[in-house]
Design a protein that fits this description.
By secondary structure, the chain is of the alpha+beta class. It contains six helices and seven strands, in the order αβααββαβαβββα. Helix 5 links the parallel strand 4 and strand 5. The protein is globular, with a radius of gyration of 16 Å.
Length: 157
């Protein structure tokens, strides 16, 4: 019963960004784009044969888990690593792979992993969404190289 309640299918797209500080800078800025890309991928309005009224019921199922949704702003890799290490030390998670944010630095690979999308119904849609994440990452990477690291736009000034 528990496994059936968690029967969801999401798309994970890994985009290579080897520098950990750059991963955090891009993740901070990529948060803005996540709802927009989710809107392009939604295709799970039904649950157990019923129309839920949600375009992505997968998101609602996943909401019940800790360490999900759009991540908070991090000032850099050190702060992110400290947060992750605290979760491991307190036995909340085994490792960084159990942080299930909609975008995250992968704990093993040198990638930024986007996890917000429903799994598309067609291969062409999957390729398109992966290309959008690559383009967003490339644009933010170029912007971060040319400008000082941006501050949290949601922070109180």
């Amino acid at each position: 019963m528990v496994a059936r309640a968690n029967l969801i299918f999401g798309l994970h797209v890994h985009v290579g960004v080897e520098d950990r500080e750059m991963q955090i800078a891009i993740m901070n800025q990529a948060r803005y784009f996540l709802p927009h890309i989710l809107a392009l991928s939604v295709n799970s309005p039904f649950w157990l044969g019923r129309d839920t009224g949600w375009m992505s019921y997968r998101c609602k199922v996943f909401d019940k888990f800790p360490r999900t949704n759009i991540p908070d702003f991090f000032t850099g890799w050190t702060e992110y690593q400290s947060s992750s290490s605290c979760l491991v030390k307190t036995n909340c998670i085994i490792d960084g792979g159990q942080i299930w944010w909609d975008v995250r630095p992968h704990h093993v690979y040198g990638t930024l992993e986007y996890r917000i999308c429903d799994i598309p119904l067609r291969a062409e849609e999957t390729v398109t969404i992966a290309a959008l994440f690559q383009a967003i990452t490339a644009k933010l990477w170029l912007a971060a190289r040319e400008e000082p690291r941006p501050s949290d736009p949601t922070a109180a000034r």
